[in-house]
Amino acid sequence: xxxxxxxxxxxxxxxxxxxxxxxxxxxxxxxxxxxxxxxxxxxxxxxxxxxxxxxxxxxxxxxxxxxxxxxxxxxxxxxxxxxxxxxxxxxxxxxxxxxxxxxxxx
Length: 106
What we know:
single chain, alpha+beta, Arc Repressor Mutant, subunit A, three-stranded antiparallel sheet, 5 helices, globular
């Protein structure tokens, strides 16, 4: 087996979505629409830290799934919203979450 081989697109996607806070952040934005950082942090179940939420949002932004909008105000206002790229992922996540609920007892 070759070492240091680049991950396939499927492996990269699973690696990204498999991180602890990624799906919770996406689902919270999906339910809440456009949210400011503190509101998003309050709504995410499980008590995510500021540092972890910032890292998760940065990763999702670099993946093109979340858009960060900075308003030039004092104090600065930053909002996060899902992108069109997320819209193509939504049916897949809906199926995954439905499967998880249907098989939770097992």
